[in-house]
Amino acid sequence: MRAAYNEMMGWFHNGFDGNAYFILYLICLVYLFITDEDKRFKLVVPSFLLTVFLINPICYRYIWAKTIGYSYWRLFWVLPIIPVVAVTFVNIISLGKNSWQKYALVLLLSFFALRSGCYLYKYPETAFVKANNAYKLPQPAVDIADYLVDKKDRPRVIADISLARYLRQIHPEIEQGFGRWGQGCNNYVSGAYFFNIFREGPIRTDLGEDVKFDWNLAHNYMLEEKFDYLILPTSDDVAKNNGDKILLDAGFKYITNIDGYGIYSVAN
Amino acid sequence: MVLLNIIRAILVLMVVPMFLGIPVVSLMGIYEDRRVYRFFLSFTIGYLITFAIMQIISVPLILNYKSLTSFVLLYSVIVCVCGIILNAYAYIFSRKNNTKVLTKNFIRRIILGFKRVPNWVWIILIGAILLFLFMEYHYLFRIHVDDDDGRYMGNPANAVLTDTMYQYDWGTGKYIDNRYINMSPRDLVSPWMMMFALLSRLIGVNSTIIAHSIMPGILFAICFMEYFLMGDCFFKKDKAKTVIFLFMVCVVYLTFSGNTHTQAAVSLVRIWQGKAAFATTIIPLMMYLYLMLSGEEVHRARYYILGMITSCAGCFMSGVGIVGTGLFMGPFFFWDIVSKRKWKDLFWLIIVCIPTLIYGYMYAKIK
């Protein structure tokens, strides 16, 4: 049971991202139970029952771990935290005797809410940036996808991991050696071979101490599998020199540079 | 061409939900003299019904390897038939009960309604609207790039190109020999992504554009319509408290975060993904339905049926929706039955949980 408790608490911390909203929610439940007769049975009791049903090691061990597993933390969304906190704040603001007191309470509680959690858009994971296209995807991906389908109806490409996840969202006509979803990759064409090279970022010519990556082998492989293009991040210097020497020596042909990505043809 | 796309988008995204939602709200016999509330509920329920229809027809089609075209055609026919039947029934019902369907001086009534609100609340109302628009602005004019979208947006794009559903790999475009092994079972049982493919076909716009630029604005607006209705239930038609409630909901949404895992964070960052759409639209709606059910004397059976439709819509969105709808409605509705000692309603509670049971079983079976 202790192991179940520890596992459950791991998901709990993951689900609430370390903010204090769950504690605030419990305080609000107690406050409403004491002060608001109408909400006591309408909101507080069922919310409490749901919370207990969801967050306890016994239910976790025998129900949640067996049925929903990894997605357990997502069930915390079902807890009525937002309405409970908002209703409590409204009740507190209604205690103000005049409009100025009410404004002050609104500001105070907004500040309190901010201290319980944190401003959402400030994190890199939740940040928004200016949109340059209707797809709402990085502009290099849109430009390169447009370029590829302009050149060929069904281009077959192997693209750097920083592009691979976007290209098919724009033009599904593009066939890829591998795509990417979240932290993993799906890869039915080329095995883990290319993914292992590209996930580390720009061109790498070795896979570790023992394994030497062979671009000649890669070129031959891409020829056999009828790939058309190889797309890799390219520095300005490489672009000026019309491609990376290692790749050119292996048989790839440099075509152009689009938004910092070099496009190489695989033609023999 | 663009004008035609806009007309098609208005028809599919605005007219169709209202076409389904208005008669249902009429039949429920609520908000008859409160047009804004009626509009909000009609719009919300209209979308809910379209999601439920998509779920009911798409899962058997997907499991039987049918084409996207068959899904689009069947959906269009069912929506038309359902809409006509519901509207005809609502018309007959309103004639029988002498219900006024139209109200004169619509805008004047809204203004008069808000004139009764104390002056100090107006500033809070403006604050709430600004905060809501601030959040909408992020969805409409800025971008958040999410790694998971390779799968979420790759699948509908594949479907439109190949006229299939979940038969090609999202990342590579390669045909999948055995998708029961190579695909996630939740995609087959909760095919939310196929909605973008369907809308892409109906509107004529790329599915990624629909998912990233059009639907977030609508889904987030639905969310706040639901909170508006919820506030009205909580505070028994007190407009001032409802406005403050909305303001505080906006504040909580903007601050209930730490990273990307909370309900507010997924709602504000990646609403186009099924699980986030569930957190944003279905969870507040379930709370609203529960509040209506636990409030004054209402036609309880109608709310249970709506609960079942909500459950079905939740199952359509995500695997977590399959469990989440049952998890919420089970305890909350059960508590309502127990506290009011309406034991006959236990039958309806089982009806409400049917989608969870069916799609949960299918999920487990495929897995």
Protein architecture, described:
The complex is a heterodimer of chains A (268) and B (367). The relative contact order of chain A is 0.08. Chain A contains 12 helices and 8 strands. By secondary structure, chain A is an alpha/beta fold. The model of chain A is unreliable at 182-192 and 198-211 (pLDDT under 50). The radius of gyration of chain A is 27 Å and the shape is elongated. In chain A, the strands form 2 sheets. Chain A has a 5-stranded mixed β-sheet with strand order 3-2-6-8-7. With 367 residues, chain B is mainly alpha-helical. Helix content of chain B is 78%, strand content 1%. Chain B is built from 16 helices and 1 strand. Chain B has helices spanning 2-28, 35-63, 68-96, 106-115, 119-141, 149-162, 179-182, 185-189, 192-203, 207-234, 239-255, 263-269, 274-294, 300-317, 319-340, 346-366, and one strand at residues 142-143. The mean pLDDT of chain B is 88. Classes of the chains: A alpha/beta (268), B mainly alpha (367). β1 (129-130) of chain A pairs antiparallel with β1 (142-143) of chain B.
What brief labels describe this structure?
heterodimer; A: 268 residues; alpha/beta; five-stranded mixed sheet; 8 strands; B: 367 residues; mainly alpha; 16 helices
Q: Which range best describes the helical content of chain B: under 10%, 10-25%, 25-40%, 40-55%, 55-70% or over 70%? A: over 70%
What oligomeric state best describes the polypeptide chains here? heterodimer
- Name the chain pair whose interface involves the most residues: A-B, 88 and 84 residues
The Rg value of chain A, from CA coordinates, equals 27 Å
Task: Please sum up the structure shown.
The complex is a heterodimer of chains A (268) and B (367). Chain A is of the alpha/beta class.
Topology record:
The complex is a heterodimer of chains A (268) and B (367).
Chain A: H1 2-16, H2 21-35, H3 37-54, H4 57-67, H5 81-93, H6 99-116, E1 129-130, H7 139-151, E2 156-159, H8 161-170, E3 175-176, E4 179-181, E5 184-186, H9 192-198, H10 215-224, E6 229-233, H11 236-240, H12 245-250, E7 253-258, E8 261-265
Parallel strand pairs in A: 2-3, 2-6
Antiparallel strand pairs in A: 4-5, 6-8, 7-8
Helix pairs in contact in A: 1-4, 2-3, 2-5, 7-8
Chain B: H1 2-28, H2 35-63, H3 68-96, H4 106-115, H5 119-141, E1 142-143, H6 149-162, H7 179-182, H8 185-189, H9 192-203, H10 207-234, H11 239-255, H12 263-269, H13 274-294, H14 300-317, H15 319-340, H16 346-366
Helix pairs in contact in B: 1-2, 1-3, 2-3, 2-10, 2-14, 3-9, 5-10, 5-11, 6-9, 9-10, 10-11, 10-13, 11-12, 12-13, 13-14, 13-15, 14-15, 14-16, 15-16
